[in-house]
Structure of Protein tyrosine phosphatase:
Amino acid sequence: MNVLFLCTGNSCRSLIGEATFNHLAPEGWHALSAGSKPLGKLNSRALALLEQEGISTEGYYSKSWNDLPLTPDIVISVCGNAANETCPAYLGPVLRSHWGVEDPAHAEGTEEEIKAAFIVAYRILRYRIEQFLALPLDELQHDRDRLKAELDRIGNLLP
């Protein structure tokens, strides 16, 4: 199963979701990320955080949802609400869920406050991914309604 983490710029949250999911996922499950208006570069703070966590980002890049190499089975949007973000809506025959996370790339304040915003976003996404991967995936991949309900439930969880 292929899971797409989707946001607008594809430089930070969707990258964190993609890299963390692939780091933790069992065989047969794979994540990718994209944006509706990609920035064309990955956020250096997000890359540094993932490296610090021992998660590889090799081969990842900021890309448009129009340039995906495959059609995902599941699309998880990760846009937040604080900055009045417009969250892209992926159209197509996929299972969709929303896991809103505020964009740490827009954090302001001291270096420590900005770093803390990235850590919060990472911890939220990692926790939700861990909850997702703890589900009976072999069973749920054949029960779309139940999988959708579980993904929506997970999208409201906080660590």
Q: What stands out?
A: The first strand starts at residue 2 and ends at 7.
